[in-house]
Amino acid sequence: MKGFSDEGDIPRRDLISLNKVPEALYTCTATELWQHLNGPTLLHLSGKEDTPLFLTILLHGNEHTGFEALKLILNRYRNKQFPRPLIIFIGNIAAAKANTRTLSNQIDFNRCWPGTPHKTSKEAAIMAKVTSYVQSQRPFASVDIHNNTGKNPHYGCINRLEPAYIHLAKLFAKDIVYFERPLGVQSAALASICPAVTIECGRIGESAINEETAAYIDRLLNLKELPTNLPSPDEFTLLQTISIIKLPEDASFSFNGTAADFILRPDLDELNFQKLSPGASLGVRCSKSQKQLEILSAIQDQPPQDIIEYKDNEVRLKQTAIPAMLTLDTNAIRSDCLGYLMQEINERGAPLK
Ligand SMILES: [Zn+2]
After folding, report:
1. 103 and 156 in one domain?
2. From ligand 1's centre to the CA of 63, what distance in Å?
3. CA of 108: how far to CAs of 50, 91, 121, 146, in Å?
4. pTM for this prediction
5. What is the pLDDT of residues 24-45, one digit of tens each?
6. Which residue range(s) make up the domain with 297?
């Protein structure tokens, strides 16, 4: 069968390669995985059809839905052949042990795929090996599974506006986000190989989403092909990430009204996926502070948009925008960002009026 020789092409110190499901994987939790897998692991399981489905899970160690859904699938097909081969990359097992997104001495496992600015990192070397192996297997599609910390609907993210990519995302959820930044993410790297999607499964601990994600994977395992024509416009909503909002490192913030540079709305994450008008408030800035939220452009070759104003100490939007992934989670804010701003687009990438 296709896959690795006993020695493997890949040094085991960096990347473990397996052709069989270790027994513990049917039952253990994400935080226990380190007891059974001594590092990032690529699992290649055989199936009836030729073209494999590629899944990545636990690129962020505290986002467990991918692993929980995988366990449901592994148990469902135990002692049965998969309809098509399944290649699974189980990413940051060390961070999963600590139940955290990324360890402080690591590069974020979803910022170091080919195209990353962190080219010389050891994490980038691992992801480059995984990518080239998966490419050699001619995958049918790629799905990277995540959770987020704020209140968000479930949605799929794509890096190409092509029918197969839109279909792949739409099979998971109606809301589809197209993005070009940040760089070095799995779905952007895989997009040059096959239809690829990042699925955002909401907050962990909602058990229905584990089943829903397993059902999505099962559907892809059994799908003959992805349609090459666009779904009808009422079947999906396409959004583009235009800005990334960061808190400056030296700025303090609170959500409970405590004095800080930025006193943000306690219900900030309720704004996610709502269309906000110019003037919508994200919170207030301390009258003595001159600090500004950092706005990065999420669109290639475009300068950051002048999208936030500070009027009478209020932090307000200057134009219509739809937030995503706004979070109240201090860790997520400090290690990644406060959230994103999006606009609605058509399938050619043009903003909708
Ligand atoms: Zn994530």
Report:
1. yes
2. 6
3. 32, 10, 11, 13
4. 0.91
5. 999 999 999 999 999 999 999 9
6. 241-344
